[in-house]
């Protein structure tokens, strides 16, 4: 499916390439700056009508140029405006042109002091900042924070890395952010998402063909990306066509996680779900499930015999299973089958991740790994420790290494494929952070695999639907509530 342009995320480098390609196509770059600055001024007037003064803080680059244009437009609208600049006259040609058109004095940044009724228009640095903000800027950010002065950010709150979403020393907390053409990764990754406030994307006239030509493979996770492949029921549907999901249970005292996965898989549409249970857990599982079936699997030989006789479409291994050799043996025995490896299944390979990667190295991608931060570090310690990489970059490198779809979990979950495609998920409500929610996610992804979705599509759809299930369950939900809503529907017509 063609990516919805509103879902595309451009890195700062890609955005710079779009600007350059637009200029090369004959669109004057100063015209883009005029449109950007005027959009900022319009937002300032619309969202901050109570402002007694707009204090426009301008940096030395094109972000500062947008601020100068915004300041001039605000002046012409009759607003009270004060301009404070970092480093004197700007360095870029377009920003210098905007600077020379000003009809008001520009003061040095270190002279700015927040006062009652101020609204700060932050045009100091855009998304391309890669180093810690200078102390003079950090001091202003702290003063604005302490005064409680509202901030309207231009492109991205200054001090926030547009690629990684991390604070570079200090960063403004914006009430609203106006960005141009597309959002950047830093708008969606944490803590960046929490610093941007409401985000508004303004079209300043760069053609969509140029945006698409420079875009990489990073997008916001959205049904438009995978909806055509999401299973749907029809008149000919029956349980065997909808696939048979097997979920491996842990021992008698640790069966709950697997049951959550199994129930979620059943709710998400798998035609049949079986709990593969060790002998000591058969009774407790039998007393707790109804529609989910049971099959005793005590040893690797039991599993191999079952694989030869049963028509099993996909597997979930890890929730409550236990860490150790059996988990490794079971996972590698499934090397040719669609498998969601979660929790204990992941941790079991921490001493030698290459054993897992080599087992699944050939053929189409059919392994889905669902690590949280700690588990990611166990399988990919070098990537986890590399502070120069963004979360999507880490996930993509991990997917390439493991030949797997990676679900790098968190409030800003990233789903990545070995071909470099990555989605950032944003629809998860905060109450999804509860014990057992990951077990439910594993079951949902397993069910989508059972119904024929590819590993990456199943992972992306599962993560998004997991968030929708949490919304349907409501604040205060438990993992059992979440599993009960795992079959949540989405409005196909909306996408």
UniProtKB/TrEMBL annotation:
<comment type="subunit">
    <text>Homotetramer.</text>
</comment>
<feature type="binding site">
    <location>
        <position position="122"/>
    </location>
    <ligand>
        <name>K(+)</name>
    </ligand>
</feature>
<dbReference type="GO" id="GO:0046872">
    <property type="term" value="F:metal ion binding"/>
</dbReference>
<dbReference type="GO" id="GO:0046496">
    <property type="term" value="P:nicotinamide nucleotide metabolic process"/>
</dbReference>
<keyword id="KW-0511">Multifunctional enzyme</keyword>
<keyword id="KW-0067">ATP-binding</keyword>
<keyword id="KW-0479">Metal-binding</keyword>
<comment type="function">
    <text>Catalyzes the epimerization of the S- and R-forms of NAD(P)HX, a damaged form of NAD(P)H that is a result of enzymatic or heat-dependent hydration. This is a prerequisite for the S-specific NAD(P)H-hydrate dehydratase to allow the repair of both epimers of NAD(P)HX.</text>
</comment>
<keyword id="KW-0547">Nucleotide-binding</keyword>
<feature type="binding site">
    <location>
        <position position="63"/>
    </location>
    <ligand>
        <name>K(+)</name>
    </ligand>
</feature>
<feature type="binding site">
    <location>
        <position position="158"/>
    </location>
    <ligand>
        <name>K(+)</name>
    </ligand>
</feature>
<dbReference type="GO" id="GO:0110051">
    <property type="term" value="P:metabolite repair"/>
</dbReference>
<feature type="binding site">
    <location>
        <position position="372"/>
    </location>
    <ligand>
        <name>(6S)-NADPHX</name>
    </ligand>
</feature>
<dbReference type="GO" id="GO:0052855">
    <property type="term" value="F:ADP-dependent NAD(P)H-hydrate dehydratase activity"/>
</dbReference>
<feature type="binding site">
    <location>
        <position position="438"/>
    </location>
    <ligand>
        <name>AMP</name>
    </ligand>
</feature>
<dbReference type="Pfam" id="PF03853">
    <property type="entry name" value="YjeF_N"/>
</dbReference>
<dbReference type="InterPro" id="IPR004443">
    <property type="entry name" value="YjeF_N_dom"/>
</dbReference>
<feature type="binding site">
    <location>
        <begin position="409"/>
        <end position="413"/>
    </location>
    <ligand>
        <name>AMP</name>
    </ligand>
</feature>
<comment type="function">
    <text>Bifunctional enzyme that catalyzes the epimerization of the S- and R-forms of NAD(P)HX and the dehydration of the S-form of NAD(P)HX at the expense of ADP, which is converted to AMP. This allows the repair of both epimers of NAD(P)HX, a damaged form of NAD(P)H that is a result of enzymatic or heat-dependent hydration.</text>
</comment>
<feature type="binding site">
    <location>
        <position position="320"/>
    </location>
    <ligand>
        <name>(6S)-NADPHX</name>
    </ligand>
</feature>
<comment type="similarity">
    <text>In the N-terminal section; belongs to the NnrE/AIBP family.</text>
</comment>
<keyword id="KW-0456">Lyase</keyword>
<keyword id="KW-0520">NAD</keyword>
<feature type="binding site">
    <location>
        <begin position="126"/>
        <end position="132"/>
    </location>
    <ligand>
        <name>(6S)-NADPHX</name>
    </ligand>
</feature>
<keyword id="KW-0413">Isomerase</keyword>
<dbReference type="InterPro" id="IPR030677">
    <property type="entry name" value="Nnr"/>
</dbReference>
<feature type="binding site">
    <location>
        <position position="439"/>
    </location>
    <ligand>
        <name>(6S)-NADPHX</name>
    </ligand>
</feature>
<feature type="binding site">
    <location>
        <begin position="62"/>
        <end position="66"/>
    </location>
    <ligand>
        <name>(6S)-NADPHX</name>
    </ligand>
</feature>
<dbReference type="Pfam" id="PF01256">
    <property type="entry name" value="Carb_kinase"/>
</dbReference>
<dbReference type="InterPro" id="IPR000631">
    <property type="entry name" value="CARKD"/>
</dbReference>
<feature type="binding site">
    <location>
        <position position="257"/>
    </location>
    <ligand>
        <name>(6S)-NADPHX</name>
    </ligand>
</feature>
<feature type="domain" description="YjeF C-terminal">
    <location>
        <begin position="222"/>
        <end position="493"/>
    </location>
</feature>
<feature type="binding site">
    <location>
        <position position="155"/>
    </location>
    <ligand>
        <name>(6S)-NADPHX</name>
    </ligand>
</feature>
<keyword id="KW-0630">Potassium</keyword>
<dbReference type="GO" id="GO:0052856">
    <property type="term" value="F:NAD(P)HX epimerase activity"/>
</dbReference>
<feature type="domain" description="YjeF N-terminal">
    <location>
        <begin position="15"/>
        <end position="212"/>
    </location>
</feature>
<dbReference type="InterPro" id="IPR029056">
    <property type="entry name" value="Ribokinase-like"/>
</dbReference>
<dbReference type="GO" id="GO:0005524">
    <property type="term" value="F:ATP binding"/>
</dbReference>
<dbReference type="InterPro" id="IPR036652">
    <property type="entry name" value="YjeF_N_dom_sf"/>
</dbReference>
<keyword id="KW-0521">NADP</keyword>
<comment type="similarity">
    <text>Belongs to the NnrE/AIBP family.</text>
</comment>
<protein>
    <recommendedName>
        <fullName>Bifunctional NAD(P)H-hydrate repair enzyme</fullName>
        <ecNumber>4.2.1.136</ecNumber>
        <ecNumber>5.1.99.6</ecNumber>
    </recommendedName>
</protein>
């Amino acid at each position: 499916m063609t990516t919805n342009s509103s879902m595309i995320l451009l890195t700062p480098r890609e955005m710079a390439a779009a600007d350059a390609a637009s200029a090369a196509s004959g669109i004057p770059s100063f015209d883009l700056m005029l449109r950007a600055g005027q959009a900022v001024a319009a937002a300032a007037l619309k969202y901050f009508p109570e402002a007694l003064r707009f204090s426009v803080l301008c940096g030395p680059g094109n972000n500062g140029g947008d601020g100068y244009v915004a300041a001039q437009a605000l002046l012409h609208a009759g607003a009270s405006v004060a301009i404070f600049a970092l480093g004197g006259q700007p360095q870029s040609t377009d920003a210098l042109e905007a600077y020379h058109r000003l009809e008001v004095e520009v003061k040095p940044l270190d002279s700015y002091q927040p006062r009652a009724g101020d609204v700060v228009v932050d045009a100091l640095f855009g998304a391309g900042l890669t180093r810690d903000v200078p102390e003079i800027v950090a001091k202003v950010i702290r003063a604005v924070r302490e005064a409680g002065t509202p901030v309207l950010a231009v492109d991205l709150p200054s001090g926030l890395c547009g690629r990684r979403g991390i604070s570079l020393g200090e960063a403004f907390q914006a009430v609203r952010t106006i960005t141009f053409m597309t959002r950047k990764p830093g708008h969606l990754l944490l803590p960046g998402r929490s610093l941007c406030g409401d985000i508004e994307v303004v079209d300043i006239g760069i053609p969509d063909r140029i945006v698409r030509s420079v875009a990489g493979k990073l997008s916001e996770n959205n049904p438009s990306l995978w909806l055509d492949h999401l299973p749907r029921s029809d008149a000919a549907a029956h349980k065997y066509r909808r696939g048979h999901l097997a979920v491996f249970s842990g021992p008698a005292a640790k069966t709950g996680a697997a049951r959550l996965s199994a129930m979620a898989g059943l709710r998400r549409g798998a035609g049949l779900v079986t709990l593969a249970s060790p002998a000591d857990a058969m009774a407790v599982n039998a007393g707790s499930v109804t529609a989910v079936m049971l099959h005793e699997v005590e040893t690797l030989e039991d599993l191999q015999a079952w694989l030869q006789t049963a028509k099993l479409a996909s597997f979930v291994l890890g929730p409550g299973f236990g860490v150790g050799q059996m988990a490794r043996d079971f996972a590698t025995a499934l090397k040719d089958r669609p498998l969601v490896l979660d929790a204990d299944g992941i941790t079991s390979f921490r001493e030698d991740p290459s054993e897992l990667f080599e087992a699944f190295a050939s053929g189409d991608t059919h392994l889905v790994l669902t690590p949280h931060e700690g588990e990611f570090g166990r399988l990919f310690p070098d990537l986890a420790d590399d502070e120069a990489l963004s979360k999507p970059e880490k996930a993509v490198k991990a997917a390439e290494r493991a030949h797997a779809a990676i679900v790098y979990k968190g409030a800003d979950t990233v789903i990545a494929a070995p071909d470099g495609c990555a989605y950032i998920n944003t629809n998860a409500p905060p109450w999804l952070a509860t014990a057992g929610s990951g077990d439910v996610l594993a079951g949902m992804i397993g069910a989508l695999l059972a119904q024929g979705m590819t590993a990456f599509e199943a992972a992306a759809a599962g993560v998004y639907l997991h968030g929708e299930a949490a919304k349907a369950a409501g604040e205060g939900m438990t993992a059992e509530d979440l599993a009960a809503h795992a079959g949540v529907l989405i409005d196909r017509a909306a996408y």
